[in-house]
Amino acid sequence: MKIDVIEGLNVIPRCLGSVVFLFLITRIMGKKQVSQFSLFDYVIGISIGNFTAEMTLNTDVQYINGMIAITTFGVLSYIVSKVVNKSIRIRRFIIGTPTVLLDDGKVIEKGLQRVNIDINDLLEQARINGYFDISEVAYAIMEANGNISFLPKGEFKNPTKHDLKLDSQKSYLSANIIVNGEYMEEAIKKSKITKNELIKQLKKMHLDSPDSILLATITDKDLQFYFKDVEPKNYSLLE
Fold first, then answer.
1. Which of 2, 39, 43, 150 is the most buried (most CB within 10 A)?
2. Of 129, 156, 183, the domain-final residue
3. What is the pTM for the complete model shown?
4. CA-to-CA distance for 136 and 195, rounded, in angstroms?
5. 135 with 106: CB under 8 angstroms?
6. Same domain, yes or no, for 148 and 188?
7. Per-residue b or e along 85-110, where b marks 16 or more CB atoms closer than 10 Å to that residue's CB
């Protein structure tokens, strides 16, 4: 088989150009760990990967066409990431919502069916996270990115109160009652605080609305507020 050396060498500058261009697009899209990828992120990533491979190896494809396709998907990903940060409803539709698999020590079969896993998958993930006895877990939640988070029962936290011979306390999930400046009406109804009480708490902080609050959470007794536009410390050591 005759090898076209000239055509093969043409792939080199296309490859180098693709790496630089893909790096720039990735910077625009923002940093995100693979473990944080949603289904939408995977679709975008796979598409961009295919376009990059095609415009790099297939010399019959005009390079500019590949760049336009990658740019389009990159810009789309950037726009969607901004939109989902502004709208809870759109975020739930595109990214998805967490699913409770274990509630107060009880397995939620409908939750397992919803995310298309069985009890063996849940037990496997529990072992991976260090829980070889599922009875030690109070809550298990599959996040929107597919990872499963576990909250141990009070007596099995590390160091365990069982080992210290202290009275154990029931574990509680924190309720997100304000997200991105919006009241989470359903969460407030199910929490141990009323909306009027929450408004009074805001008044004490001289706030007429929750617009400046990024997140407010409540457990069985603690109410925490996290504000928007908080200036970070100078982490120059991380640069």
1. 150
2. 156
3. 0.60
4. 34
5. no
6. no
7. eeeeeebeebbbeebbbbeeeeebee
Number of separate domains in the chain? 3
Look up the domain containing 119 and give its range.
99-156
- Domain co-membership, 76 together with 124: no
pLDDT by residue (tens digit) across 170-203? 666 778 899 888 999 998 988 888 999 999 999 9
Distance of CA 25 to the CA centre of its chain: 21
Q: Report CA torsion sign: 138, 142, 143, 148.
A: positive
Residue 59 within any structural domain of the chain = yes
Contact between 54 and 14 (Cβ < 8 Å): no
**Per the domain annotation, does 136 fall within a domain?**
yes
Fill in the amino acid letter for 30. Answer: G
Rounded CA-CA distance 6/57 in Å is 13
Q: Give the distance, in angstroms, between the CA of residue 187 and the centroid of all CA atoms in the same chain.
A: 19
Q: Is the pLDDT reported for residue 86 higher than 60? A: yes
